[in-house]
Amino acid sequence: MTAQPAPRLTRLLEALLGAGTDLDLRTVLRRIVDGAAELTGAGGAALVVTDPREGGIAGIRTPDPGPEPAPQTAPLLRVPVHVRDEEIGELRLTGRPGSGPFTAEDEQVLRVLAAQAGISIGSARLYETARQRERWIEGAAAVTTALLTEEGTDDALTTVAERARMLADASAGVILHPTAEGGMEIVTASTPDDPDDMVGATIAPGSPVLEQLLGGEPVFLDDSATDPRMTTRVRHRFGPSMMLPLQASGRLIGTLALPRRRGGRPYTDVERLLATQFASQAALALVLADARRGRERLAVYEDRDRIARDLHDLVVQRLFATGMMLESTRRRPGAREVDDILRQAVDELRSTVRDVRTTILALQQPPAEPPTGLRGRVLRETAAAAARLGFAPSARFLGAVDTRVPGPVADRLITALRHALAEACARGNVSRVEIAVDAAAPLADGRAGVRLTVFDDGTDGDGAGGVAPEGGGTDESAADADAGVGGGRPGGGTTVTWWSPL
Fold first, then answer.
1. The pTM is what?
2. What angle do CA 27, 28, 34 make, to 5 degrees?
3. Would strands 251-261 and 449-456 be described as parallel, antiparallel, or unpaired?
4. More exposed terminus of the chain, fewer Cβ within 10 Å: N or C?
5. How many CB atoms sit inside 10 A of residue 196's CB?
6. How far apart are CA 284 and CA 245, in angstroms?
7. Cα separation of 458 and 462, whole Å?
8. Cα 499–Cα 500–Cα 502 angle in degrees, nearest 5
9. Predicted confidence (pLDDT) per residue in 157-199, tens digit
10. pLDDT digits over 465-497, tens only?
């Protein structure tokens, strides 16, 4: 009689040892469930986990437990599974046909196995928590590195949203900015679906959610679709959500929202803590990246100002002085034989001075902003054409083009310039393009006007150069006697002239 329990105890120890040597949680729990059925002779065994955090292991059963019997027809034994002091589910035995009810010894065996299941699940939780912390720390470091290097400066908010979405296993990563009306608007969205319909969605002013976010407090929602505090038009898509303020040095930059799909797994306390810490780190990185870009822009402005001053103080003055010397030489007795050469030299120097002044004015244009004046817009078009032509067109400006040419006329001039440059690029045999904008030449009837001339040395398909017809900017200007165009330049080429009264 006393020797019979030994085999059962041996099998129990073997089941515990087998459960303790495997690293895969599902395999460990499967062995525990199978061992419970084998050691008690139960018709079926199951581990049912009620904690939503363990949803991935809920419902583990023996391979063929059969239907769970009704209480009146077969015994049922249940033992709770605890992780520390928290009950997360139970280990069940169902049915033992022909063997009578479960005994106290069966219950003791089941309790030992349930304790082992709790230990295994607790260890898995600790391991997963450590892995989560490692992933979030690595993610925060990666975001900081990306934002503080050249590669990460193009779209910093998208970088933060995308990384946070992947770390949180969320269906979307969203950045919101405060609006002038007192609400918040989605400005960046990262999602496997089309993010465009999310951008622009707003949280209405006065929402209780906003009061917390604007106060620097995170907001955690169990179900975004049904929570009355949410007012965005896309809330019906999402369930559990975290809304985390991006705050650094007491300044609220925006909000990072990480919603999961409806019915998705709720966020754990650990995930909420890690995401909040990530948001704080990301906010600091955004502030530092913005400050770094500001310093870089300031350095560029200072360098451009220095170059412009050097060009003006050294190059322009020397060229102007040389031109004056040549002019005086032309007037001296006996200089008639070199008059043509001196005249050409003076013209070239004047052209060089105009080009240098154009460069100086271009340097004064902020590089990170689109040009606002006509001069800057023309230079931007020439720079764009240079990429297609393979060389930079030259540009000359006469008169105060930025102040004399009104906006509507400038817009039409730019349109004409684009068309002329496109035709030059299409010819394919162009090696020189010259652009002149003259805001000082009056029209034939004496009215003030602006003239655009675009010359290229390319030829048409038959090898002949041509002169494109001139187009006035308005119907009124088309009636001017000045509407004609002179012949092409010697040696061929194509000239396009556009003009308009001011």
1. 0.52
2. 85
3. unpaired
4. N
5. 8
6. 12
7. 11
8. 135
9. 888 888 889 999 999 899 988 888 888 888 888 888 766 678 8
10. 444 334 454 333 333 333 333 344 444 578 888
